[in-house]
Amino acid sequence: MADATQIIDRLAKEGHRLTTPRQAIIKLVAPRQDHFSAQELWDEVRASYTGIGRATVFRTLDLLTELGVLNRIHAGDGCHRYTVCETTHHHHMMCVGCGTVIPLEAAGIEAQIRRMAADAGFDLMTHHLELVGRCAACRALLDRSS
Fold this sequence. Notes:
Shape: flat
Helix content: 40-55%
């Protein structure tokens, strides 16, 4: 995972503006090892900084997702969650019970996706694969409560 300085340097290299609010948001996001919603980040920004608008938080999340710094995960509740990306392309399994996000190694699936796109004459730029279900711990809790 990249640290805040690496992310800021990348934005500068790619010609993006390095506003003070954007840098502050990056400094809050970069060290995170959890999955978080835009609202949770907004709450953290409001507690730590004054003068940063909600729209700036959302636009910065969109930019960081577009650059591949963040993964946008489509949670089962209709809310997007974010995780700081690993340096390599990967997919996720997400628990609907506790929200745990587990990276999924899927080399065979990668080859199938590329083949399907090529067979359809489709110029594949990127893709996302998210498996949504229950982790072992949440399944065990459900089994005990039944």
